[in-house]
Write a structure and sequence with these properties.
274 residues; alpha/beta; 8-stranded parallel beta sheet; two-stranded antiparallel sheet; 18% strand; globular; binds manganese (II) ion
């Protein structure tokens, strides 16, 4: 829609890092609107400096391009999944490191499916308020409320860490004991469980406290605060991060645009991790 993420190139051949948007929100269980997430994140990124005060590095030390949004058929989750899967496969074949912007969290499933066919043994680190471990939600298997469960069907529970999780059913709580790691907080996380592993990072923006990010479909009080989150994220510079996504930004609930700016600020750090 005319804007790129923070001074990005439009040339897909410019470097190895590619930003792509998946504006899909048809399975959103409470209120929709994350289809406008990619647009708002890109637009508000213009508020930011290209220099990271956390890393003391400018993102122009990385070569990244923004190839815009994939046009997706609203209402058709199966077709959307296959289009995101094919697009991710295409980019991975080009040896790209991908940052995907949602859209709702369901978009992560086809991404992980494609990654699992290229990378054998990566660990998925998920930040979220919600467990997303349901087998189905209102009969919909590929709902955003089931995305981590669906990913576990592909890469197994033993390769998934879940942080910030403070909302789940009793069934999800029981199932969560299978995960490599599951916690309501980022404190006390033992990074040694990630040693020598490739890492895929999935950030559902509602992991952050709603006082910082009100612009999301299913806000959940009791979340992670901004500086704590960024300082934690920066620690992944020690690891081989192979891709990430940032989902569930829903700008209609975000009158001051602070949620979009927070998301853009997180994106800047993600670029530096790749
Ligand atoms: Mn989620
Ligand atoms: Mn969530």
């Amino acid at each position: 829609m005319g804007y790129d993420f923070l001074e990005a190139s439009n040339d897909i051949d410019f470097g190895d890092i590619v930003i792509v948007g998946y504006p899909f929100d048809s399975t959103s269980s409470f209120r929709s609107g994350s289809r406008n997430g990619p647009y708002s994140l890109r637009y508000h990124s213009r508020n930011l400096e290209t220099f990271s005060p956390y890393r003391k590095i400018d993102i122009h030390t990385k070569k990244y391009s923004d190839i815009g949004d994939l046009e997706l058929p609203f209402g058709d989750i199966e077709k959307t999944n296959s289009m995101i899967y094919e697009n991710t496969k295409r980019l991975l074949k080009m040896k790209k490191q991908i940052i995907s912007i949602g859209g709702e969290h369901s978009v992560t499933y086809p991404i992980i499916k494609a990654y699992s066919e290229v990378f054998e043994d990566f660990i998925m680190v998920v930040f979220d308020a919600h467990a997303d471990l349901r087998e189905n939600y209102q009969g919909v298997k590929f709902s955003h409320a089931c995305v981590v469960r669906n990913c576990a069907d592909i890469i197994t529970t033993k390769r998934i860490c879940q942080l910030g999780i403070r909302s789940y059913t009793e069934e999800e709580w029981n199932f969560s004991k299978n995960m490599l790691y599951f916690s309501d907080t980022i404190n006390n996380f033992d990074f040694s469980i990630l040693k020598n592993k490739k890492i895929y990072i999935s950030i559902d923006i509602d992991a952050l406290d709603p006082s910082i990010v009100p612009g999301t479909g299913t806000p959940e009080p009791g979340g992670i605060f901004f500086n704590d989150f960024i300082n934690f994220l920066v620690k992944f510079q020690e690891f081989d991060v192979i891709g990430c996504d940032l989902v569930e930004l829903s700008p209609d609930y975000d009158q001051s645009a602070v949620s979009s700016i927070a998301a853009a600020k997180i994106m800047r750090e993600l670029i530096l991790l790749l």
